[in-house]
Input
Amino acid sequence: MRYEGTIYRPPSEAGSLLIQATVGCPHNKCTFCKMYKDEKFKIRPVQDIKEDLLAARNYYGEFIESLFFPDGNTILMRTNQLVEIFEYASELFPHLSRITVYGSSRFVNKKSLDDLKRLYHAGLRRVHTGMESGDDITLTRVCKGTTSQEIISAGKKLKEAGIEVSEYFLTGVGGLERTREHAINSAKTLNQFSPNFIRIRTLVPYPGTPLYEEWETGFFQLLTAHQALQEVRLLIENLECENSMLLSDHMANFANVNGLIPRDKELMLKQLDELLTYPASYFRPPHISRL
Output
């Protein structure tokens, strides 16, 4: 297998075979993101991708159950190209139960519903999509390149096609100024399509990003651990999704709170209330990741 640049994958894809289909990110303007800054976006030739799939089969054997295609926004490849590599992967790995990709709402929405259904039938089972926020002002400030309505449209379309939606909420990305709006409007956005997964991430400013510079100069106010936990609590309190699994599956988070909405909502709120009684010294500094 051949890889170019740093390969990123969601924690939930730790056990998946990684075959690079695209290099970099076609948007690559988010002010908080340090990924893909050294790579110019490109789509790898389908033949190269298929050669890597065959090399993986020859090395690992046919008992691969999950497959993730990096890099950022692989969903934007032409539908015919994606169908070709998905079907080829299924031929090589007869035990394959899940193919997944990254795909932001902006690029998901470039696909028709029929396109997405074709991808589902070819083996695509889940799309990891970084909403980050459902608050339009916050989305504009961090140059996300999408809106809450576009996020809702993409989520509904994916679910209608039968594809699982793994949506990401970035705690603290609205700063202290918009912490309430960020939490409540994100919940309102998520409520419109009930993603299969809501994955909590916590903002850590990384050197070299515009948001880091905003934080250093005092323009952006980073949340303390307690404020971040209160933001997550406010998000959960306002969630009215149907059967959405909320997961805190990242080392940058201040708390490991997990549960099914609505079944475990009160339990998660109770856990957060208890954590909010802990002293600040119990938590890492907000500007330092555990990684």
Summary: The chain has a mean pLDDT of 95. The radius of gyration is 19 Å. Residues 61 and 193 are 38 Å apart (CA to CA).
